[in-house]
Amino acid sequence: MKLWGGRFTKETDDLVHAFNASLAFDQRLYHYDIMGSIVHVEMLVKQGILEAEEGDIIKKGLETIEKEIEQGILSFDSTYEDIHSFVEGNLIAKIGPVGGKLHTGRSRNDQVALDIRLYLRDEIRNIQELLLYFMQDLLGLAEKYKDVYLPGYTHLQRAQVITLAHHLLAYYFKLKRDYERLTDNLKRVNVLPLGAGALAGTSYPLDREYVAERLAFDAVSENSLDAVSDRDFILEFHSIAATIIMHLSSFSEELILWSSNEFDFIELDDAYSTGSSIMPQKKNPDIAELVRGKTGRIYGNMLQLFTTLKGLPLAYNKDMQEDKEGLFDTIDTLKAILQIYPEMLKTMKVKKEKMYQACQKGFLNATDLADYLSKKGLPFRKAHEIVGQAVLYCLENQLELEELDYKQYQELFPGQKELFTADLNKYLAIKYTVENRKLTGGTAPEETERIIGKENKWLEDTLA
Ligand code: ARG
Known about the structure:
The chain has helices at about 15-20, 25, 30-45, 50-70, 85-95, 110-145, 165-190, 210-215, 225-230, 230-260, 285-310, 325-345, 350-360, 365-375, 380-395, 405-410, 425-430, 430-435, 445-464; strands at about 150-155, 155-165, 190, 220, 265, 350. By secondary structure, it is mainly alpha-helical. It folds into three domains: about 15-105, Fumarase/aspartase (N-terminal domain) (Fumarase C, Chain B, domain 1), CATH 1.10.275.10; about 110-355, Up-down Bundle (Fumarase C, Chain A, domain 2), CATH 1.20.200; about 360-455, Fumarase/aspartase (C-terminal domain) (Ribonucleotide Reductase Protein R1, domain 1, Orthogonal Bundle). It has a two-stranded antiparallel sheet. Strand 3 (about 190), helix 8 (about 210-215) and strand 4 (about 220) form a beta-alpha-beta unit. Helix 3 packs across helix 6, helix 4 packs across helix 5 and helix 10 (about 230-260) runs parallel beside helix 12. The longest helix has about 35 residues, at about 110-145. The model has no long low-confidence stretch (mean pLDDT about 95). Bound molecules: arginine. Arginine binds near residues 108, 109, 112 and 320.
């Protein structure tokens, strides 16, 4: 059944119908479509555009359709073009010609914009909730691993010792910003487009503010052409989703490296790994790899929509039907990942001895030695040079910096003899190098404790 047969003399070709239709995917919007229609009808009655009795019949019909969809009585019959014609067609079939009054003062162009905004608004909130739970788990893990030391890297070269807690908190803050980006995105999603009509508004005296209030929108769109053509809010969401998965892809890369024999820092739980069909010894970090891999598809969905929208003249164009599948795919992918990921982290085994061993090789306290000298008055640049020479000496003699005592340093650097004193080795100990970085945002467990307390409070308030 079609909504627009009047000016046509021929049936649509079957292949064309299938190509043109969106019901196969936009059926997931049925609840929002019906919800928007119910409020639209109530408003039409309130404004005296429809009789109260007509409104009641239409409303009941819509409610029945929703129930029947949910109970599987009504199935999405592919003879309909999209979810809007499906609902309206079934309404008319159920209640007769009065059902034809539902679409008064409305177009599918503002209707589809409404549906997608209602849908995305809910899903953004779902994703935000998953993010908050994930962040809560990260804080719990940070608490657990506050005293676990591992090398921090730059250029994937061992750099300075940090705690695993500090490492996990880095991701906590990345996700917190993602959460906040979504809050900001919501402001632009939560605007009512209904009333824009096909493109120019309508001559019916619709009460858009009433509809906005009933549907809990914060604002009403202020240009009808913009309202039916705007998909920026989806692009914005795509770019946030891309940022989230980019963060998790980096995290995954680390988990993959850490679970390799080469690093051997962690072991992912059996439930989050898979075996090889040929090599019996293998345990592969497939889930982490797949998260990294799915980054491509989430970026792809974003790029697809940017490209689809590029160069579209105002206002609605059928190209815009292509805004949905990528969005649904990104949302499904992200929600699955956000549910799996925290569990993968909570069940992984941390090999703290291996991490500690890695801190003992590679001169991770070289900066601390340079700081030791510069705190005694030597310009840092000069201290850097001396420590560079000390590292070279150690490399040649297969030693670590803390394996030389202050007297040996005095012999190596007679010009700076008075700077090397008996307390030197205390400052080069791993524990000290970590505990001493206690400024705001540093890796010291004392600072980590403060951050965990502060962020737990933020999470509590936000989740409340
Ligand atoms: N299925 C369409 C979409 O998703 C609904 C809007 C159709 N409007 C139109 N004028 N053909 O974009």
